[in-house]
Amino acid sequence: MKPPPAYRQLRQRLIEDIAAGVYADGARLPTESELVARYGLSRQTVRRAFLDLVADGVVYRVPGRGTFASDAGRHYLRQFGSIDDLMSLSEDTTMDVAEGLHRRVDVDSASRLQLADDAVYTVAFRRLHGSDHGVPFVHTRVYLPEPVARLLSDAPEVHDGATSTSTIIGLLEPHLTDPIAEAAQWITVASADSEVASALTCPPEHPMLRVDRLYSDTVGRPVELAVSHFLPEQYSYRVTLRRSP
C-alpha cells in the first residue's frame, strides 16, 4: 500500500502526541519553522497538516501567539466521506481480534445480509489508537455471508488473538470479483453490554455511539455487516456534507 502523503503523516504524529499527553490541553505546539527543521519537511507540508488539525478541532490557533492543543485532541477523530476513508483506518489504528472468524446462527444479521438461511460467519475485535496504538476506542462485530467468509478462511489477521493494522474490507477487497462500492450507515446511541464493556474496559451499560455499516458491491450484493460500539470519551465522528451542484 502506498504510504500516505507527508502532511497526513505529520498530522497523525501530532494527533498521537496530543492523545498521549505530550501536549496537554492548552499547551503550545511547535511552530511551523520548528517542525520544518525537526522533520525535514517543507513549510507548505507543515501548514497543510496544521490546517487539517484546526479543521478537525484537534488544535486551535491564537493570532500572534501560536497553535495550541485542544481537549478534543485526546479523542480518536476520523473524517469519513468515502469507502477509501474507511479502509484507511489501517494507517493509524490496530485491530485486536477477540473472537476469530467462525460460523453461527444469527437471524437478524442474516436478514440484513439478505441471506436465504440464518447462518453467518462472524469475527469480533476492538481497534486501538494513540501512542503505539494502545488505547481501545471501539468494539466491532462483523458478519459475513459464507461465500465471502471463505475468502478470509486462511487469513491470519482474523484468527483468535491476532493483532494487525488491517481492516476487514481491506482484507476482502483484493479477493472480491465485484469490489465494494457502497456503505449504508445507521448511527444510534446504545449501552455497552458485557462483551463491549470487557473489550473497552468501561462499565456495563456505559453510553456508547453505535454505528452499523452494511457494505455492498458494485452489483448491489451485501458483502459485510459491521456493528461497532464507540467510546465517546475516545472517539469523535465527523462527516462533511456538501450541497448538490
Automatic annotation (TrEMBL):
Residues 4-72 form the HTH gntR-type domain. It comes from Mycolicibacterium mucogenicum (Mycobacterium mucogenicum). Coiled coil: none annotated. GO terms for molecular function: DNA binding; DNA-binding transcription factor activity. Keywords: DNA-binding, Transcription, Transcription regulation. InterPro entries: Bact_HTH_transcr_reg, Chorismate_lyase_/UTRA_dom_sf, Tscrpt_reg_HTH_GntR, UTRA, WH-like_DNA-bd_sf, WH_DNA-bd_sf. This is GntR family transcriptional regulator. It comes from the Bacteria. GO terms for biological process: negative regulation of DNA-templated transcription.
